[in-house]
Each structure stands twice: as structure tokens, then as C-alpha cells.
Amino acid sequence: MGPLDEQEAPRPIGVDPAQTGAFARIDASQGATVETRDNIGKISPDSTASWSRTGLGAEMRLRGARRPRVASRSHAKEPDPHTLVDQLKERWFIVVAALIVLGISFVLLRGCIESANKVSEQVGQPPQQTQTSAEGSVTYQGTVFSISKQDDGTYALVGRRENSASGDAYMQIPGKPAQLVLYNGTIIIPESRDEGTWDVLAYTVGSGSSPVVDEDGNPVGGPGSIAKAELKGSSLLVTDDAGKVTTVSLE
């Protein structure tokens, strides 16, 4: 594209150059020079003092104080070996602490799971209800209970740990035991007394012994002696020597 013709040059809208004279041409004698890339070094040397030519082309580059300061890759700061060692130590301590916390959490979680399993097993177990003769034994929570005749001729409820030969007396029995019954953790012993009556004793681990009572709070019993005692559900059926059957509730 060539230089614009005088008539084609852009002019302000609504302004008549003939009247204002604002767009009068100047001639070559007035020394006007258009600044271009080729002559800028001759026209304005101050503006190009900080430039230098590179290569064979027309590329120009800033030099001296005007050149921007950029750190080169070769002069990048290398990590301090002491700082690196300290960072590795800190990370090692963090790893060790995390492993310790995980170990403790695992042990605690395992204990909780085992306790929960034991409770579940105990809850899921059917109620322990069994009976045997006065000469037999029943086992509850690792303790073997039996009736033993003492040197003075009386009887006592004795308990010993499994695989142990000796035991301790838990309860004295005034009369003659007829049966040994285990009902949901309670030892039940129906007995015939010397004065011609019978009653039922109970021993609960951790609570001690007491007579079995009826709904009114009176000790269960009757005249005569016990001929037979049978556990049936939550009741103990006691048959006396007269053939009378008494139902004793164990709940």
C-alpha cells in the first residue's frame, strides 16, 4: 500500500481546512523528518543509547543498567544440606509418631472388639439351667459348685476353680440337701430340716445366700421332708413325703 494521497488523508469532521489553515503542508526546506526504524539512531541518539545490535540482523537488545536483571538457572540457589537434613529428620519423626498412634489405635480397637465379642457371646448364650443330685456338681463362670459334708455333720456349699483340688465354703446348709440346681447364675438348694419341715435356699455369686420367698415375701416351705425336686422352666416342683407338689417360682 503506497502513501495516502492528500485528498485521502483523514480529516476532522465538521472542520474546513480552507478556513482554519490547520492542515497546511510544509515543504522540504523546513527540515521536517519522519522518524522510522531505519533512521531513529541518527534522529534521536539519546533514545537508543541503551540499545546494542546483536547478530547480523536488525535485532536490538537493552544493555547496561537498563537491562533487566534475571537470575540464570546456573546461579540458582542450591538447598542447604543442613536444612535438608533437618527436614528429613522432621519427616522421620512424623512417620514414627504416626506409626505409634496407629499401633496404639489398633491395640485399643482390638480390645474393644474382643470385649464386644465376649458381651455378645454372653448375651447370645441360653440361660444356664441345670440340676443334679446332692452328691453332684454344677459349674458357673469357671467355678465348680458342690455340696460337702462338714466334720460336724452339717453341709456347706463349696466352690473351687476348675482343675483345682481345694475350694472354699460359700454357704452353710442347716438341713439335708435334696438337690443341687443352677438357675441363671443362682445356686438353688431345696433342703429338709430336722424339725420336720422343708425350705429352699439360694446362693448368688457376689450377693450371698438367702431363702427363696413367695410373692408375699414369705420363705417358701412346708411340712414334712422333700421326696423329690424337679426343675421345670422357671419353677422348681417340690414333692414332699406325703406326695404334695409345691410349685416354687424362681423368677
How would you describe what is shown here?
With 251 residues, this protein is an alpha+beta fold. It folds into three domains: 33-64, no CATH class; 83-124; 129-249, 7 Propeller (Methylamine Dehydrogenase, Chain H), CATH 2.130.10. The chain has helices at residues 17-20, 40-43, 81-124, and strands spanning 51-53, 60-62, 129-133, 137-140, 143-149, 155-161, 168-173, 176-177, 179-183, 186-192, 197-204, 208-211, 221-223, 226-232, 235-240, 245-249. The strands form four sheets. Strands 3, 8, 9, 10, 11, 12 and 13 form a seven-stranded antiparallel beta sheet that branches. Strands 4-5-6-7 form a four-stranded antiparallel beta sheet, with no helix packed on it. Strands 14-15-16 form a three-stranded antiparallel beta sheet, with no helix packed on it. Strand 11 (197-204) and strand 12 form a beta hairpin. Mean pLDDT is 76; it is low at 54-58.
How does the SSE layout of this entry go?
Blueprint: H1 17-20, H2 40-43, E1 51-53, E2 60-62, H3 81-124, E3 129-133, E4 137-140, E5 143-149, E6 155-161, E7 168-173, E8 176-177, E9 179-183, E10 186-192, E11 197-204, E12 208-211, E13 221-223, E14 226-232, E15 235-240, E16 245-249
Antiparallel strand pairs: 1-2, 3-9, 4-5, 5-6, 6-7, 8-10, 9-10, 10-11, 11-12, 11-13, 14-15, 15-16
